[in-house]
Each structure stands twice: as C-alpha cells, then as structure tokens.
Amino acid sequence: MRIGILGSGQLGWMLILEGRKFGYEFNVLDESRGPAARIADSFYPVSEFRKFVDKCDYVTFEFENVPVEALEYAQSQDKLRPGLDSIVIKKRRSLEKKFLKDNGFKIADYTITDNFEDAVDQAAKFGNAIIKTSESGYDGKGQLHVVDGNYSGDKLEGQEFVVEKFVKFQYESSIMISRDIEGNVASFPPSFNFNYMGKLRHSNSPLEAGQMSEIGSRLVSRLNYVGTMGIEFFFDGRDYLINEFAPRVHNGGHHTLMGFSISQFAQHVLAVSGRNVLQPRQFTPSGIVNIVGREIDDQLTTALLANEETILYNYGKTPRKGRKLGHVNITDKTIEGLRSRISKVEEIIYKGKPELYF
Amino acid sequence: MRIGILGSGQLGWMLILEGRKFGYEFNVLDESRGPAARIADSFYPVSEFRKFVDKCDYVTFEFENVPVEALEYAQSQDKLRPGLDSIVIKKRRSLEKKFLKDNGFKIADYTITDNFEDAVDQAAKFGNAIIKTSESGYDGKGQLHVVDGNYSGDKLEGQEFVVEKFVKFQYESSIMISRDIEGNVASFPPSFNFNYMGKLRHSNSPLEAGQMSEIGSRLVSRLNYVGTMGIEFFFDGRDYLINEFAPRVHNGGHHTLMGFSISQFAQHVLAVSGRNVLQPRQFTPSGIVNIVGREIDDQLTTALLANEETILYNYGKTPRKGRKLGHVNITDKTIEGLRSRISKVEEIIYKGKPELYF
Fold it and tell me: ipTM of this model?
C-alpha cells in the first residue's frame, strides 16, 4: 500500500511512524523537506505533484495550505482522502462558519466583512470579539482580540475577515473523530486543552463530555468525511460550541499515541487506505505538553526522559520562538496524577517562563 | 544522537520505529538490506564497519551473528552497548551454559562434547534430551530431540554440541529486563510463551512470577549489561530454569509495544544512549501472535486490522516457510479476553493449520 502525504511537517512524520507498522510505504510532497520528508520512502517537490499522485494508491494531507492543484489532481484520480470538500471549506474561515451554522452546529455569533475597519466596528458591537482573517490563519496567527473597539498590535491584512463574538468559556476542549469509507465512525474520548497565546500548551484526557462525540459524529457524517478529524470546542457552561475543525490529524490528539489501543495517526492511515476504523480504548489517563520555541538539546532530552511514563517526540525542527518543536506524552494511573506530571514537565521545559518561548 | 545498529532485521526496524521519537538518527550495517535498512538514515555494507562505527555515538546489535571485527572495533572505540562480553558468551552455547552454571543460575542438566555420536550417547543417558550445536542456532535450528537414543531427521553438523536434559516444564515464559550505565535495572512483567516447532507462536502478559525478575536482575548485573535483554525460562512446577538469554531486544517482548508506558525497544535505545531506564507500567493485559511463513497480503492485512485492540507489525520481508514475517499486537481488559482474541487472530492467520507455515 502506497500512501502519499501532502505536506512534510510533524503531523506527516507521526503518520509515517505509526503507519509503517502496517507495512505501508509513505511518499511525501512539499515545497521543502520537513520532518516527514526525512523518514519517507520518497520525497517530491510540489512541481512533480502529478508523478507523486500517480505513484500513490491514496493521497492525504497533513496541512491545509497545500497547493490546490495537487489536491485537485488527487481528487480527479479518486485518490484524495478526506475529499476536496472538507479542505475547501476549511481553507476559508467564512465558509467553515457558514457550513457549521447552516448545518445547525452551535458556534459563536459572527459576521463576515471584506474590510478591516468595518470588522473593527462589528467587533465593537459584540463588545468583546476576535477578528480573524478568512485565509491562512493557524496557531493564533492572523487574529486580533478587540475589546470595546480597542486592540493592540498591527491591523490585519486580508481579503476577508470573520468577526467572532468572544465566548466566555469555562474551558477549551477537543475530540479526535474518525470515519471510514463505509461510514463507520469512531471517536476518541475528549480531552481538556490549555491554550496559551493561541497555541496548545498542554492537554489531558479523558474529559467527561458525551455531547462532543455526538456533535463530531454528525459533523464527519455530514461532510462524508474519510479519515481522522480534530474538532476544537468552547464549553460555555451549558453547550459545547465548535471553535473550529481541522480536516486532518491534529495536535489535540497527540495524547492518543500513548495509553490507547490505537492512535489518531494509525486510525487516519486505516481510514485513508480504505480499511475500517476501530473503536479506540483508552487504557489510562493520558496527556501531552507541547515543546514550543525551546531547543530540544541533549540536556532537555535527558531531563524529560528521566520521568516515568513519559515519552518524548522530537520533530527535529530548527528552533524559533513560537514554533512547535516537539511534544511530551505522559500517562498516569489517575487524572490528578497526570495533571501533576504535566506541571512537572512544563516546569522542566519552561522553568516558569513560557512567555519567553511561545 | 547517532545510534548504529549491527544487523538490519525486524528487531532493528522496531528499534528505529521506537527510537525516532526521541529525535535520534539511526544507521544500519549489514550484509544485505533488511527491514531496518529501508527506514534507517543510512546503510553501510559490512566492509565499511570502521566508517560506520566512527559515524555513530553508540553502537548496538539486533542479531548475535554479526561480524566479530565490527563488534570488536565498536568496543575498542568504547561505543558498543551492550558490551562484547555478553555477545561472546552468547555466540557459543557452551559458554552461555557454563556462565549460567558457574554463577549459580538454575538451568537444565547438560554436558558438552565435540563429537555428534558421543552427544547421542550422552543424550541416551538423560533419556529425553536435546542436542544443540554450540554455534549459530536459533528458532529451533541446529537442534535435535533425542528420546532413549533415538532421533528423527539428519545428524547435526558442528564443532561442539551441548546435550541438554529435556525439562518436563509446565510452561515456557520470558521476561525483558533492562539495565542502564548507572546500574539501574527495570524489568517488564513476565509473559507466558507458547512455542511451536521451536518458534514463538503467541505470548501473553502479565504472568505472575516474581522469581523471574529477581533472576533477570541478577543476570544483567552480573554481566554489567547495558540495554534490554530477553530471558527465556522453563517452569518445572517449582523453579524457573533459564533456557537461554538474548543480549538484545527479543521476540518475547514485542507485546510491550502496546499497553505499556514504554516498549522494550524504547528502553533499549534509552540505555544504549546513556540515559536512564524507566520502570515500565503495564496498562492492560497485552500479547502477540507471530505471523510465520504466511504472506501478509492485502486480504490478511484487512482481516487482521478489522479487530479492535489489534495492531499489525508487517516487517516487509519475503515470505518463506518458517520465517517470521510480522506479528500482531493485541490487548484486552482481561487476560481471559486477551487469550480469546489471540485464538481468534491465530485462526485468521493459520486457519487451524499452523503446521503448513511453521
């Protein structure tokens, strides 16, 4: 079985690490050679997308902003999974919002405008709001928090803006959910997410919340989705509002690499290759700490790997402030014990000063 | 961190799959390109062993029968882990027996001779015995079962023979045990092994047996061992007799890939690279079924991966009767449930006729 991955980042890297078990071959296409390219069976530059698609039995993606001509060609060859629909919706935030609203999913109030000044006026009406560019935003980029019409930082550049009313959430959470070509759906237990400066800092699972699996199941079925999807939620004290979804494996599901009968990555590879998804079983409370903006040198590696029930994933990327360079998987017998281990690992990585790295 | 692996078989392949998480680089040396060579950062033919060793920070092995000059050169550069002692003892069965006996470990009665006819006479004295060639035997090769002086099959060729009294065991079992350069020892829970025609067919863990960890701990400490070791036992109803040990990761520990806080492979990579071993926690009953002599085609892959709590490891080797081509990891909430899943998976692979494949 030959799988093609559009994009060569760490998500592709983990898809390969997990998917190799099945004896699959992995080929990667990207503009430059990221972590996945270094362990793939072959690497193709973007210009060779036809050759790449022709070589693969199925093609998936690990990043939304991949060249549309490669996606379209893979779709035309009936090899793209998930299909073009979900990524087209996702590549434009206004389409995602509209899709979710039209299909009856609960989301924050929002408006759409093509003018930044108008976006600020709309935000002022919401009182507390976020302006997001409709395209190319992730990990807190292309976003601006506006309170009573005031904001700090540069104005956003873009063709279209989504103005979202700020949700006074009790917490943020996510689920990973998978669907196969026969329409079977398998949901991982939800996880609690702690986001910091627009990026996930740590997560832990399980989180009691039946509603999220039910919402996710409706969403992947509505999209006729094939593969694993990440869905982020705000819990406002009553409902789980969808913040956004990612039509791919997702940082919110890295904890499934440890303490589960199957990972989000293995599940995605199964679905993409036309096999059935499996109901995951969580063996033990499980979570992660992201390593952001902090070089994973020999000393840090030693300090992290000296902890029981702790596995390091080092993506091998060049350090840069705000960049995700790896993560640490952690388990424990209890959720309280897990939280305590997470705090300890955060202290080892950030020494009480995450603001220096995020 | 650059790790060198002598040998390119499936054990090396799994060392790389597990060790890549830490951001390590893996280089492989072998006569031909096995599974590990296909996913390594680089491959060296045996003739280039000096260049290979010079490139690596540490060198380990995944197979006993690697060229001794490569082992010796790595040892001379202070890079070989585990050290030369344990592999020298292991490469000659008579030395292994003598070492175990001299150090007070319980083993089956045995004698050593350099003449096959004499070996048969000695075996006749034991009544029920096994003759083994002293070198190059594994997976039941180079062995002959002799009952009252009679045997079927060809006489064994060799320079030296070990004649072992047959142990009327209640069951066979094994442990994986690891030791780091500081002398810390971490043992995985023992597993029950079902061997068939000299090869492991399935295993399940945990097995209650404190004695084995204690014996293993004495053995790795006595050898000043660094890395993960596999030790096979016979339980005769009273004692655990050491059948043999392997100074490397081992088929008897593949179940640690699923349902554990750390695998035998990750543990080995930690120890070899000078880091501390961790106390493994077993989350749930866990076992494997070996896929021997049976092509892992698309149909078998689908049939195996359709089972909950089941992960396939396909080594990508060419099928041949008696050859290990892959294994299936299986977990369950209970040991009874696990045994039932194991039977189901065996039925899928062998359809009630393992003798056609082993």
Answer: 0.94
